[in-house]
Design goal:
2 copies of one chain form a homodimer. Chain A has 217 residues and is of the alpha+beta class. Chain A has a single domain, classed as Pnp Oxidase, Chain A, CATH 2.30.110. In chain A, 19% of the residues lie in helices and 35% in strands. In chain A, the strands form 3 sheets. Chain A has a 7-stranded antiparallel β-sheet, covered by helices on one side. Chain A has a 3-stranded antiparallel β-sheet with strand order 2-12-13, with no helix packed on it. The longest helix of chain A is centred in the middle third of the chain and has 13 residues. The radius of gyration of chain A is 19 Å and the shape is globular. At the A-B interface, β1, α2, β2, β5 and β6 of A face β1, α2, β2, β5 and β6 of B.
């Protein structure tokens, strides 16, 4: 199937939204949780969390114009702190539910059955049911002029994850943590490891890393 | 396991790179292909491709300081055109190999066994073995001051995908296309659909979409 720019414009709006949201491939399934200055908790699905750098540990996410995102963003601007929490197969339905347009004064934690938990004096709540989660401090908000969205950049200050989901060299075992991928607007995928591959060298074809023979990679 | 900011700084550099690259969750496994003005083809893995908006269809990716990324970026600046191509389980080893630091004059297509193909007069090459692939025109390059990376924004002008990977409403079936997720720096995952969920409403818990009963969702 070939779709050019002209055909893309002519597509039904819903069709185009599904198509363009799906076509970039799989997205990390995360919940971003915040708390307003006045103490109102907020949590919502964000499928646009992206690694920006490891030193310092900087993570971005894209902010669109919608109502759900706005509450999250207002809280981040007010307080500077937020958490990112992996969606796993025990909470993906509750997580998806948190994307509904709940009013400002409703905590999506209470409305959906996700549990908020406060760890190590971090200001924003975490999602208790998430196995991998981390706290961030706002660094920068960057305008994307092409379509009036924003890239929100934060620095990781706190990380929580189960010991059995981190290998000896720091590799994070997402499958063991039950972390999911999102496809398009509404598809939740489990992960099935094909292989880890050796560091790419020009001189040879990468080889699968044998977890059993080298201290779990 | 709890890692605070101080502990994070003290970690071995390799450990921290694996950890921070892994902790954001799964990433789309894509190849970006370009051609220089002088006709040199280039292709490399990018795990930072991100949806920015559907109307217009805008896609971003993050550019770091590395050599591999620089060749891609130089070609995009010179020519304005590039393609994004999904990595699937038939080409993930070849794709990973393309990340090695090949010299500027070496085509990673020739070096790795990925095939370049030109479609519908689009300037940049596509990866023939990718089932889902699209061509973009550069729109904007945005500096991320916090760590001197860049967000490169492009508009989709051409889309190629097999008919059996798009449902009636535009949903892109990534699993059917064999599209993969990347974890950390070197893990390649296949997708296993848990469920598609109905549009989130405040009043009810989302339900799995039954593909068989509603025209495949």
């Amino acid at each position: 199937m070939y779709i050019n720019e002209e055909k893309l414009k002519e597509l039904h709006n819903h069709y185009r939204i599904h198509l363009i949201n799906g076509i970039t491939g799989t997205k990390a399934a995360n919940l971003i949780a915040t708390k307003s200055k006045s103490g109102l908790e907020n949590v919502a699905v964000f499928s646009s969390v992206i690694h920006l750098g490891s030193e310092p540990a900087l993570i971005g996410f894209i902010l669109r114009q919608g109502k759900v995102e706005r509450h999250t963003f207002e809280n981040i601007l007010e307080t500077k702190y937020y958490t990112i929490n992996h969606i796993n197969d025990t909470i993906y339905t509750k997580s998806h539910h948190s994307s509904a347009k709940f009013p400002r004064e409703t905590s999506e934690f209470l409305a959906t059955g996700l549990n908020s938990v406060y760890l190590n004096n971090f200001y924003a709540p975490y999602v208790e049911q998430s196995l991998i989660k981390f706290g961030l401090e706002l660094q920068e908000v960057i305008e994307i002029k092409s379509n009036e969205t924003k890239l929100v950049v934060g620095k990781i200050t706190d990380i929580h994850l189960p010991s059995n989901c981190v290998h000896e060299n720091g590799f994070v075992d997402l499958q063991n943590a039950g972390s999911m991928s999102i496809g398009g607007l509404d598809a939740y995928y489990n992960l099935d490891l094909q292989a880890r591959l050796s560091y790419a060298e020009t001189s040879e074809i990468p080889k699968p890393i044998d977890f059993n023979n080298n201290g779990r990679g």
